Amino acid sequence: MSWTTERERGSAHLLRLTCWLTLTCGWRIGRLLLYPITLYYYVTASGPRAASRDYLRRVLGRPARASDVLRHIFTFASVTLDRAFLLSGRTERFAISVEGLDALTALLSRGKGCILLGSHLGSFDVLRDFGRTSPVRVSAVMYRRPGSPMSRLMETLDPDLWRDVITIGSPDAMLRVQENLARGEIVSFLADRDPDARPDRIATVDFLGGRADFPTGPFILAAVLGAPVVLFYGIRLGPRRYVVRFEHFAATITLGRATRRDDLAALVSRYSASLAAQCRAAPFNWFNFFPFWKDPSA
Q: Can you give the pTM of this predicted structure?
């Protein structure tokens, strides 16, 4: 089953109530609510619980305990809680540091656009916070779940949210990407999964000791448009503490006509190796609660 067909857990009324209590009564009250929410999710969501256990076994190098899975779910819930504050601009009590910014500014100083490749590691919303002070516009290419209670809530918190979002699958998506890069702007992708990737745009590579599928689309696009690529990670370090990391990947990407498949596999392998290193450094930050590997242990 694809993750795009999974029913989003939680009702719209409960999401709005939790968000209202959090923003009205404060972050600490919201954090207290995460404990029963985490326990409920652990007890009722058998599929995500098994996927978490499989991932944690790989990244920790030992069998995952119940406490590990609970911590994993709690970290995800904490990032979701912080999303309400990041989207509504209430970041005065957040500590967000930036590492490797030179890798990004060096490319932008040439007046060319840049592709940022992120992942479901930590918080993508800290990039939006960074984008508010960025010297150039930052647009995100992402999947938008139709009718999602979370999507509707996000729009309420930040009415301008979707202005800088390029929806995967929309007719003008690639044209907008090309136009933004031509203006010297930043376009970001989450490169660890793609709901619309065709079989010929998937590379199966080693990731945390197993074989896993990654989309090749962002790398093909970078090669076609001649755009440089920088990796991005927004990692949660603790309560309201994040680090934004930029990592140089490629000034240009070239795909040989006869070696295209091998070239893409090599690029995806480099990306997955970087992601694996970040996962090992912050193991409870990667949020893919569905079977990710071709050889799942759970």
A: 0.87
